[in-house]
Amino acid sequence: MNKESFKKSLADQGYVLVDFYASWCGPCKTMDNVLDEVIMQFDDLQLIKLDVDKERKLAMAYGVMSLPAIILFDHGQALYQFIGLTSREEIVKKIEELKNGH
Question: Any one cellular component term from GO for this entry (predicted)?
Answer without folding.
Answer: cytoplasm
